[in-house]
Amino acid sequence: MNRYASKICFLFFFLWYAGTAPASDTLKVAKIFQPQEKDGLLILPLLYSTPDTRLAYGAVGFYYFRIGDDQDKNRLSYAKLLADYTQNRQLDIWSSWNIFLKDEAWLLRGEARYRNFPDRFYGIGNQSPASNPELYSYDILSARLTAMRQFWDKIYAGIDYQIANLHNFRVETAGILRSQNIIGSSGGVNGGVGLLFVIDSRDNVVNASQGTFLDVGFYAYGKAFAGDFSYRNLTANFSRYYRIGKKDVIAYQVLTNFNFGNPPFLMLAAAGNDDILRGYARNRFRDLNFAGTQVEYRRHLFWRIGAVAFAGIGDVFKTPSDVNLQTLKYSYGGGLRLALNRKEQLNLRLDYGFGRRNHGLYFSIAEAF
Questions:
Q1: What's the whole-model pTM score?
Q2: Most buried residue, 88, 130, 160, 212, by CB count within 10 Å?
Q3: What is the DSSP string of 238-251?
């Protein structure tokens, strides 16, 4: 049994035990509370490996709830807190939330995060070589606060404020980051405000089986918003979900990220992550822009177990002419799902993705998109 298969077996055995053991024993392993039909708390250990981190371990808490008595008018809200430490000596403490207020009149989203993150810099562009990456490390303390009002059924608009303090940069004296004067390699504050437009008709925000999601944001960064870097950013995320029969779902996503101006290199668009182009390290390829798409087939197998297959394609680029068939990034793979809460369709996710000379194992709660 290889090292990845052993991790998968360990994780699924743990969660099978937590879900089936007597209550007194289960609480010794993980606290899985469902005090009411509309809310619950999950506290789980983490053990996973990705191309960015190698082996990582920690814990995640996931609190889900509904505000209001009418569940037909109020979809699931959640707040998540994650802390982990990796074999690459990376520390990540991250809280995020997505909250629908009563009758979904308002949608509040946000996150707060601290990272101490040794990493590798390969250069900028979709043809950056894999050989001799530059080692560097930094600390980042960031926050994001979003408030959106519902103007029509499932249609929201609002404001998003983001700020990040990039500090304690440690780079190689004669490396690319300093010798080529890469923007942001000495740290600084990245602050900006965005206008958001959202259409969200998904039946479930953590595991949709039907509906549409569209999230478009235009951001301005600079001194007016307590930032040191001046640039603009336009993002768009479109997803569509189709239920096929009782057990099958087909979903697809189109994701774009365009920058105009001079963003710090940490805020450049990147190809790969645990959500799109699974199999590539998130920071392996960076440039001003990214465009990609993916499709996923999801099927319930038996009991709490499900399976998925996915494929995607995309790339980073400075101008569209930079993209060609020789560098275009593709991704494919599959994974398993374990329903932590069948009523709310909240799943533990284990995916293995393959790309162009890249691969990786991913472990998370909730679906990739």
A1: 0.84
A2: 160
A3: EEEEEEETTTEEEE
